[in-house]
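for the record, two folds in this file. i put them one after another cuz i was lazy. first one right below, seq on top, structure tokens after. the second one comes after a little note so u can tell where it starts
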Amino acid sequence: MRQAKVVMVTLALLVLVAVAAQAEMYVEAYAGGNFAASSANSASAFFPTFAPPSPGVYSNPGKIDPAFQGGLKIGTWFVKEGFMGFNYPEWMKYLGFFLDFSYHRLNFVNNFGLLVAPGGPYRMHNKTEGAVATLAFMFAARYGFFPDSEVPFGRLQPYVAVGPAIMFSWQNPSVAFDAGARIDPDSKSSIDLALAAEAGFRWMALKNVSLDVSFKYRFTQPSYAYYHAQSSGIIQNDYFLKPDYHFFSFQVGAAYHF
């Protein structure tokens, strides 16, 4: 918990520095598709009512459905032409910072898995439904092509960005055994630090309006803790779902600069 607080304070200070140094600011709305690599969707379980209490291990391919994604960026480039017009060093016009908030569904398709536990192994059919919201703190660099009097830096601006992110996700799993039993625990959430990277092209259609096309990657390793008990109380188990998330997304957006 203390480490998380230190990270949050550090990120807040970085945001304050960027806001204090605001120059050419912009607000952008974007939409696109999110695609995830198959995750090693492993889980560990513990059965305290067994004699003796026994562990179990479960795994499946972890295939994730594609999803629609929407988001919002608020950012700045350090140039004199923008808002407040500070007298930055010439080299700073290539640098910038932006906050990136995005949201999309996060559903695992129906997967076949194997539970290795007392009396087993057992074949299982597993699916989960959930979503993920990400707030990324992105440090960016760009270059300009086709400058003119209206856009001195250049109308075409390829850029790259990288930074830490906070990812809030939740999952509601449903597990069915070949023998007919089911496990339907409550939804659980996880808040995790993540890595985000992005590359794209921005076209300044007007002095204050731009169009953006980009590709984004995010990675994190969440952990969801669940508890399940049969109505009789004879079988109880605690288990932890620990997937690896590799998210790839393609998005288009429009921004207003001021």
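(here's the note) second protein begins now
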Amino acid sequence: VAVASAVPGPPAPVVAPPAPPSTVQGGDLASQMVAGKPPRYPVESRRKREQGTVVLSLTLGLDGAVEAIGVSHSSGFRRLDDAALDAVRRWRWKPMMRDGQPVRVRGVVEIPFVLQA
């Protein structure tokens, strides 16, 4: 009686899925900005003479658009914070690259609201 024994071949190569794009800390975001209008100074804030600087933390997507945004330091006035958020959500940056591939970027943007005399 002949018995055939199967000799296992070499294991199949393991193909790792591509790594998700990494997120890097942004350098000078201002130099990479390609489109963005300054926020409108809320009428009620002008009337009440509200001033301050809003610091926003944001994540830019692979295409340079804002993916996530939040207030990391308030101006002290909700209207000014909201005006800054509304404006910066629409801003666009040149996509950030690492090793020839686009990457997500985390950074901060300061928006000063100062009334002129």
